[in-house]
Automatic annotation (TrEMBL):
Residues 30-394 form the Aminotransferase class I/classII large domain. It comes from Solanum tuberosum. Its EC number is 2.6.1.1. One of its GO terms (biological process) is amino acid metabolic process. Its cofactor is pyridoxal 5'-phosphate. It catalyses: L-aspartate + 2-oxoglutarate = oxaloacetate + L-glutamate. PANTHER family: ASPARTATE AMINOTRANSFERASE (PTHR11879:SF14). Belongs to the class-I pyridoxal-phosphate-dependent aminotransferase family. This is aspartate transaminase. GO terms for molecular function: L-aspartate:2-oxoglutarate aminotransferase activity; pyridoxal phosphate binding. It holds the Pfam family Aminotran_1_2. One of its GO terms (cellular component) is mitochondrion. Coiled coil: none annotated. InterPro entries: Aminotransferase_I/II_large (IPR004839), Asp_trans (IPR000796), PyrdxlP-dep_Trfase (IPR015424), PyrdxlP-dep_Trfase_major (IPR015421), PyrdxlP-dep_Trfase_small (IPR015422).
């Protein structure tokens, strides 16, 4: 047998395979609703104006080897301020350890490895459902995962009491992954009072919360408001971890800009934790890029650029909300027997439609509409030119004994 004859093709990734299938479809009238990055109303990727201006500001500076450490340290501090608050005692007292990461995925992977090294017998509790890659990240880090109740398919909302019961019944000092805002894939978030109760139970059980914040600003349009869950936990005296990504809220997807940070008791403990995180990074990929973090720091430290960024985030979210409203209204105007109020109750980039795998396959096969198999629809891919087609197709596949197949010839939209 040859060296690699025993290697079999890996299973298709449930998210990236959607785009691959979309690209291989020769049909001109098709929709990609699987991509988890912002698109404008023409379906095109967006470079934010604040990013353009930040790039111009740093274009003339030389990033010397001697300045890399300073640049990365400043970036981590900026990330921590954004997540925990400028006036947080964590920031004032240097009670945090953090390192730049390769976007949110890399940040989660670093924490998973850190967890394995220092709590080798621990598990990570993941919400059910969660971003599919969470399971792979902790599995490949050799950390066992368990799930806790989160989403209710019946109400298309939060299974709060079941969630609370799972937190109470988990072994003391368990690790939990939490989505602080714009839960992926469901778009269903706990409200303020529910976060307070969750934090209270975590305190009693002495659980460790790890927040994966990939969508700060994308839930409400307000970056401060979207950090509310983390601020609640800090006010209650928790130690916690946080993964941050700027792929969505700054449109830096291909720059892979992220950060992982861990709150500690004091600055001495923070120094020790940081040294261990740096050791993990050194063995994985040695050093992270500098250009993306420098763009982020430039925006966050320039009052005008930061204000512009916050305005642009609000514009993005307003468009997503507008498309939710339009999609719901269009479906309701088709006299569908289903209820569509959950479209506008959910928040963030994704609409968790409740479509079955069979209905998703139907949409792909007959209408060339692509989404993940769990029915997650990226609202960034919905535009004014294609929303009628999408609504008609959803109505078609969800209607019982509907024999009026829609004719795609009547629709024109930008692919």
């Amino acid at each position: 047998m040859g060296w690699w004859d025993h290697v079999q093709p890996a299973p298709k990734d449930p998210i990236t395979s959607v785009t691959q299938a979309f690209l291989s479809d020769p049909t001109p009238l098709k929709l990609n609703l699987g991509v988890g990055a912002y698109r404008d109303d023409k379906g095109k990727p967006v470079t934010l104006e604040c990013v353009r201006r930040a790039a111009e500001k740093i274009s003339g500076c030389e990033i010397l080897e001697s300045t890399k450490a300073t640049t990365k340290s400043k970036f981590v501090q900026d990330c921590v301020k954004l997540a925990y608050g400028n006036d947080s005692s964590v920031v004032r007292e240097d009670r945090f350890a953090g390192v730049p990461a390769l976007s949110g995925t890399g940040a989660c992977r670093l924490f998973a490895e850190f967890q394995r090294r220092f709590y080798p017998d621990s598990q990570m509790f993941l919400p059910m459902p969660t971003w599919s890659n969470h399971h792979d990240i902790w599995r490949d880090s050799q950390v066992c995962t368990r799930t806790y109740h989160y989403y209710d398919p019946g109400t298309k909302g939060l299974r709060f009491q079941a969630l609370v019961n799972d937190i109470k019944n988990a072994p003391d000092r368990s690790f939990f992954l939490l989505h602080p805002c714009a839960h992926n894939p469901t778009g269903v978030d706990p409200n303020y009072e529910q976060w307070k109760e969750i934090s209270h139970i975590f305190k009693i059980k002495n659980h460790f919360p790890f927040f994966d914040m990939a969508y700060q600003g994308i839930a409400s349009g307000d970056v401060e408001r979207d950090a509310t869950a983390i601020r609640i936990f800090l006010e209650d005296g928790h130690l916690l971890g946080c993964a941050q990504s700027f792929s969505k809220n700054m449109g830096l997807y291909e720059h892979r800009v992220g950060c992982v940070s861990i709150v500690s008791w004091d600055d001495k403990q923070a120094t020790a934790i940081k040294s261990q995180l740096q050791r993990i990074v050194r063995a994985m990929y040695s050093s992270s890029p500098v250009h993306g973090p420098l763009l982020v720091s430039t925006i966050l430290n320039d009052a005008d650029l930061k204000a512009l960024w916050e305005e642009e985030v609000k514009v993005m979210v307003d468009r997503l909300i507008s498309m939710r409203i339009t999609l719901r209204q269009t479906l309701e105007e088709l006299n569908s027997s289903s209820s569509w109020e959950h479209i506008t109750k959910q928040v963030g980039m994704f609409y968790f439609s409740g479509l079955s795998p069979e209905e998703v396959n139907h949409l792909q096969r007959d209408f060339h509409i692509y989404m993940t198999n769990d029915g997650r629809i990226s609202m960034a891919g919905v535009t004014r030119s294609n929303v009628d087609y999408l609504a008609s197709a959803i109505h078609e596949v969800t209607s019982v004994n509907n024999s009026n197949c829609i004719d795609s010839k009547h629709f024109e939209f930008v692919v």
